[in-house]
Predict the structure.
Amino acid sequence: MDSVPSATAPAQGRDAGPSPSVWVFKCHRAGDHAQSLALAHALGWPFVVKKMRFLPHELYFALQGKGTLAGIDRRRSSPLEPPWPDLIIMAGRQNETPAKWVRDQSGGRTRIVVIGRYWTPAEQLDLVVTPPQFRLREHSHVLVNDFPLHHVTAEKLEAAAAIWRPRLAGLPHPWIALVVGGSSGPYVFSRETARRLGREASQFARAHGGSLLVTTSPRTGRGAMEALDRAIEVPHRFYRWRPSDPENPYLGYLALADRFIVTADSLSMLAEAGATGRPVFMFEFGGGPAAMRGPRARDPRIRQWWRWSQLRDQGLLGLHYALAICLPPWRLNRSRDIRLAQDRFIALDRARWLGDGEPRPWQPAPLQDLDRAVARVRALFDSGPARGDPVHKAGRGPHDAAEPAIMPSLPAAK
């Protein structure tokens, strides 16, 4: 059940000796697993993906902080056996228990890097790489990046551009990619919200004399897709997401769009659009005390969340979610506040809210989040023995840290 990447780049800056071996534990959340893979690929060390199937009682062992395989279905999971890896990269609470078991079997040599938020106390992990929305406490083992990691590279975009440029040739410029997420936490992407997005995106495209390149995602409901498609009033191409579809135009749209409108629920898609260095506009939706822009919302219906029309559309999900966000984060309060990340996009001049006007021209600096994460991981192998490791010494030859490779700038739209 292991899967091996088709190619891994050699670790840069290493004179001799094998690279550290890496296992990536697959997370059930596709976005979090994509971040783990992005880090693994950027390190350039050989890795395999391990898939876990968990049993209902795994939470019992997690609450006890144990490193054990008792909570996984071993017949349906990837084998965990020697030789033990030097590094485990993982996301998701469930994966922490088998990761700690592997570290125990290795005599403490295996390092554990968690993406996102953690369940195990931070001091018992080697590194946590997280964006701001998880509200993690400051700790020497926690690296708080500005945005989620992503695995969109210049090479992927160049290849996608070559495929999709002729297919889109009949649409008027500028090309505006409309990237659509869906319901998440207290934010319900309803039919009414989809219709409003279609109207506002059409108005934006009409004002610029361009067309819309629309792509939906796994979280976009079928009814919302249909409502959005019917509401668009300008030339456009509309893609309805399908699993494992080789005709998915998402990378092509990233490569070729002159501007982006992204629903603000998807921080990963915002980061990927922002990495292109082209204007990004965030579409707000949702309601209640946890509204994306709260009292700053441009739409009075969102500001007045207590009205029946808004409650009927968005439900009451925002009420308990807002309460959880107001409380301090602790082990059982795992609420995230995506508004912290949205505000970060605005503060760093990487995005504007749709409807706030065309931003002044800007050329954002290349994203450094992945480079920072790579540097911190490599430093783990140059900072002394791993926790509980009686054999490995600091500065060991083959595992000396190397300078991280700077990711190439993403190509400009043509």
Residues 191-208 form the longest helix (18 residues).
